[in-house]
Design a protein that fits this description.
Elements (H helix, E strand, L loop, with lengths): L2 H12 L5 E5 L2 E5 L5 E5 L5 E4 L5 H7 L5 E3 L8 E7 L7 H10 L3
Antiparallel strand pairs: 1-2, 2-3, 3-4, 4-6, 5-6
Helix pairs in contact: 1-3
Length: about 100
């Protein structure tokens, strides 16, 4: 499957939790029941998740090969609560999205 299909699969698997697909910065995104984005598909096929820093999920995500903190500007200004996870780990995207959804904002 491609990244877009894997993204859609994550959204479908979380739909019963009130998750809906939307857009953030022109990219496909997942929103919680309150309308807040907690995950988004990036142009390179990776997915970015809002995982609160210093949590086990945040640490584990950053340990995946190729994962890194999200830098929306591309100018070295990372957003420390957001982790980019490559498509090679798409099988873990649903678990990461569930962790992002359940974390306090």
């Amino acid at each position: 499957m491609g990244a877009e299909e894997d993204f859609q699969q994550v959204g479908a698997e979380l739909a019963d939790l009130g998750v809906r697909a939307s857009r953030m910065m022109g990219r496909p995104a997942l929103k919680d029941q309150a309308g807040k984005v907690f995950a988004s598909l990036q142009r390179d096929g990776a997915m970015v998740f809002r995982l609160v820093r210093d949590t086990p999920e945040h640490t584990a995500a950053l340990e995946l090969a190729g994962a890194h903190l999200f830098d929306p500007t591309g100018q070295g200004r990372t957003v420390k609560d957001w982790v980019v996870v490559p498509h090679t780990f798409a099988e873990q995207w649903t678990d990461l999205a569930e962790a992002a959804l359940s974390r306090p904002r």
